[in-house]
Amino acid sequence: MKMLYFLVGILLLISCSKGNKDNASPGSLKAKFVTAPTASNQRSVTNDGVVATLNIKSYNAKTGEVVFDKNPALGEWANNKLKLSVYKSDSPLFTLTFSSPTFSFVYNEPVIYFAGGSENKWYILDGYPQGIAINTVSSEPVQNGWREERDESVKAVQAQWNTFVNTLKEEGKYSEN
């Protein structure tokens, strides 16, 4: 009988240690929101400019939506100086420029786009405005030759992007629907 309890206990420990996606380890991908110090935020920005460090919970390749383990409270830092640096372990992969619907800037480089509103949705897009998920094809024309420039910007980080995607797949955090 003692052996039965022992085996049941071992099985419970093993099943608990495997966990599920919600309890999975944070993984090796980190996202750091970084900003340049300004007169207004100088006291609250660390020496390296990091405002928030987050784990990436999931990424949808079709829409470009990225979900973080917690909602970043960016407040005063949500401006055109904000960047999102993506790391695998401690190695930098690429940096994205912050963008939102309130911006009037044109970015022909990969961006981290905050859709705004109460849903708190974030997207990695090939540019702003009229951005699309990286490595997807859009039938809609993009103004002023932006598509060519955006394609070149994505090509510049393609190897690092592939590392990002492969790591997400290995960690079960990548979807295509």
Structural class: alpha+beta
Number of domains: 1
Apparent shape: globular
- Output the strand order for the largest sheet: 1-2-3-7-6-5-4
Low-confidence parts = 2-24
Largest sheet: 7 strands, mixed, barrel
Give the helix tally.
3
Distance between the termini: 49 Å
Which whole number gives the mean pLDDT?
A: 77
Question: What are the main properties of this structure?
Answer:
globular; 177 residues; seven-stranded mixed beta barrel; alpha+beta; 3 helices; 23% helix
Polypeptide structure, described:
Helices cover 23% and strands 26% of the residues. The protein contains three helices and eight strands; from the N terminus they run αβββββββααβ. Residues 2-24 have low confidence and may be disordered. The protein has helices spanning 2-18, 146-156, 158-170; strands at residues 29-34, 50-60, 65-68, 83-88, 91-99, 111-114, 122-125, 174-175. The chain has one domain (26-175). The radius of gyration is 20 Å and the shape is globular. The protein has a seven-stranded mixed barrel. It is an alpha+beta fold and 177 residues long. Strand 4 and strand 5 form a beta hairpin. The longest helix is centred in the first third of the chain and has 17 residues, at 2-18.
Helix/strand layout:
Blueprint: H1 2-18, E1 29-34, E2 50-60, E3 65-68, E4 83-88, E5 91-99, E6 111-114, E7 122-125, H2 146-156, H3 158-170, E8 174-175
Parallel strand pairs: 2-8, 5-6
Antiparallel strand pairs: 1-2, 1-4, 2-3, 3-7, 4-5, 6-7
